[in-house]
Every structure is written in structure tokens, then in C-alpha cells.
Amino acid sequence: MKKEKLWTKEFLTVSAINFMLTLMFFLLMVTIASYAKTEFNATTSTAGLVSSIFIIGSLIGRLGTGRVIGVIGTKKTLWIGLIAFAITTVFYFFASSVSLLLVNRLLQGIAVGIAGTATGTIIAQILPPTRKGEGIGYFSLSAILATAIGPFIGILLMKLDNFEWIFTLNTVLSVICILIYAIVKIKLPVATGKGKEEGKTSFLSKFIEIKALPISFIAFLVGFSYSGVMSFLSFYAEEINLVTASSYFFLVYAIVVLLSRPITGKLMDARGANIVSYPALIIFAVGMFLFSQASAGWMLLAAAAFIGFGYGNFNSVAQAVAVKVTEPHRFGLATATYFILFDLGLGVGPYILGFVVPHTGYRPVFLSMVVLIIISIPLYFLLHGRKDRELLKVAA
Fold this sequence. Notes:
Layout: H1 9-29, H2 32-40, H3 44-72, H4 74-91, H5 98-126, H6 132-158, H7 163-183, H8 213-239, H9 243-246, H10 249-271, H11 274-293, H12 297-324, H13 331-360, H14 362-383, H15 388-395
Helix pairs in contact: 1-5, 1-6, 1-7, 2-3, 3-4, 3-5, 3-13, 4-5, 4-7, 5-13, 6-10, 6-12, 8-12, 8-13, 8-14, 10-12, 11-12, 11-14, 12-13, 13-14
């Protein structure tokens, strides 16, 4: 049997756009708080809000986008997201106060939520069913690369002490996204399965894909568990005197994800999500345990490798499952549902854990995340794992 094509012009174009959007997101994420403090003498808490309000905007954007996609289509929705992102990028040059900066960050977060949901939906629509896990694994690598490159470029540009370089680069990249999307004509398959019963659905199901909720809830727990690593690594490294090793943490993480994703994606398509999900969650728990007990550079970097394999691969598998359990005409809602809960875990995690750390220290907090990951394993079985074999038969 001839293998269905994966690397189409549509796939490459949308992956490139997703890469640039994610790169711009992380480039600003690591620099905008410093900008607020330097330019507007903002307090530390206000500067933190300038950085994090973007995530709130992203959640708002995702919440409505699944519904919008069902009404006007994925391609028009992506146009709205890309144009809104470009406009809000230019507005950074004119934000003359912290209040205006906060408003712009919120609006740009909404734009990213719209564009990000649209790109994920387009990928779900164009991938052949027999290679959906592999394809989503490759697609999500675009974001993984951006999370490593974006902060690096941001910190490099910050050394020039001229934030306008950062805003200029983002403006150029946002225009490139629009040009690429305009030049390359995206052809989408016609969605099937939309019937008269669509109008009889509940109010909630017009914004959330109910079938995608179980796996998305597990993604919420996994994202919450990882959020402390993402937010507190630099502070934790200072406390345990491993600052030098910590500078290589995300590099090791990214390399492991890049090497393993193609393999785990193919495994999922061939044998179902369980063969990847259970080992990934166990390995993630081992990595978090190593992270919580790290006393030497090799332990911290070993933790990065385990977390990269475990967390990194479960993330893409869970996203693929959210789409696979859903009818094609609701792929937009499924993608939005998954990212709403996943982003929520990443967003509320640092806020909640930030209250606990002063009373317990970092090690107990990270150790408690091991317990949460272990709890998520039987929950995964109850919510999805026991039904995964049936899904594999349907796909076949």
C-alpha cells in the first residue's frame, strides 16, 4: 500500500507560520517584563502582569475560535489571527504607558489564540488519518524549536539595550507570516459529518468539544506539573548552585524531543496512543523526581532529557488523541478545547505554586509534582486509555 503524503506545501506552510508565531511569543515573553520596568518604571508585580496577561488573552482567543472556525472556516479565521497579530505588533511602538502596554499584550494574546487554534486545526484537517499522530508530532516540533530559539534571540537583543530592535524583528516576522499565507494557496478537504443535529447541540458544545475534554483534562494536569519547571528553573538553579548547567536545560530538552517525536508519532499511528502515553508519563515522573533532587549538573541535565521525552511526547500524543476522537467538522473545537486546558495548566501553575514556594522551598514543590504525574496515569486509563484500542480499530 502506498504511503499517504505528509510533507505537502500546506503542511510546510502552516508549520512555518506556527514556528514564527511561537518564536515571537517566546521572544517577547522573556523580554517584555524588563521593557516595562526599564521604560515605564513598572513594579515587579506589574511587569510580571505585562508578561502573563498575554496567556489570559490567548485563552480568551482560543475559547471563541473553535466556534468561529465552524462558522466562517479555518482559512478565514487564520487570516483574522495573523492580521490582528501584525497590528498589535506594530502598536508596541506607540504604547506610551503601562496601561496601553497591558491592553496591547491582552489583545495580542487573543490574536495568538485565534491564529494558533487555526494552524492546529488546518494541520488536523490536511493530515491523512493513518499518519495523524506522526504529522502532529512533526508539526509540534515547530513550536519546540521556537521555544528554544525565541528566548535566545530575545536575550541576545536585550544586550543591545534597544527594545525597538525586538519590536522591529517581530513586525518583520508577522509581515512574513502574512505574505507566506497569501502566496501559498491552502487547499483543505471538505469536512463531512455536519448534519441537522448540529443545531440541537448544547450551548457548551458550541464552544467546547466534549469528546476532547477527557484527554484535555489529563493535558491540564501534565501542563500544571511542568509549569513550575518553565517558570522557576532560574531561581531553583541559583538556590542549588547549578546555574551553569541550567543554561543548557532547555537545549537538552529540545534535542531529546526533536530526536524522539518522529519515532513516537509513528508508533502512535501504528499501535495507538497507549504505547506512547504510559511510558511517557512514567518517564516524565522520573524526570521530575530527578529534577527535584538535583545536586549536580549531570542530574539536572538528565532530568531535562527525561522530561523532554516524557512531557514533550505526551503533549503531542494528547493533541493527536483530542483530534482523533472528534468528527472532522469539529476539529476546530477539539483543537481549541485541548489548548484551552493545556494552556490553563501552564498558566495557573506558576501562580498557585508561587504561593507555596515561600513556605516549602522548591524541592518539595517539584516533588509534589511527581505525585500529581503518577496520579494522572490511572486517570488517563479511566478517561481514555481503556478505550484507545477501539479508537485504533476505527482508524484502521
